[in-house]
Amino acid sequence: MMGLVTEETGVAQAVLVCAGLADAGVRFWLAGGWGVDALAGRQTRSHRDLDLLVDAADEAVTLEVLGDLGYVVETDWRPVRVELARHAGDGGWVDVHPVVFDADGNGVQAGLDDTEFHYPAAIFTTGRLGGIVVGCVSAAAQRTAHEGYAHRPQDEHDLAVLETLDTAD
Description:
By secondary structure, this protein is an alpha+beta fold. The protein contains five helices and nine strands, in the order H-E-H-E-H-E-E-E-E-E-E-E-H-H.
């Protein structure tokens, strides 16, 4: 079934997903490559998927919106993540990461093997994607997410884009 999926998640589809979630009142933030591109305000490379941190309270609505857009669950590792694929048009993938928030806006995401990822409220910011304002995680949080593993070419690219953001001011 995976062979039917378009390999790239294009900007039009990413914007459609973000707009659909926003219209449904879902709290979400872009992470990964699209998160970097949102901080840059433009698409800087091709992307296999759209990584989303979503308020765990909005997970059911998120999956409903994605279902309405033609996405189906391909990998279900909840509560850690759920990955969906779109089998038509300019589809691609969406990787949903549910995050539980406290009253101060700090988030915790379940990880594999009883690990956790902690997201301080200060890392949540906004960027632009295809002309719309979207939530995304900060450049500092993006850099932290790139620590502790061997970088792939797309990781090196994203880090280089983040570096240009530091010098753009």
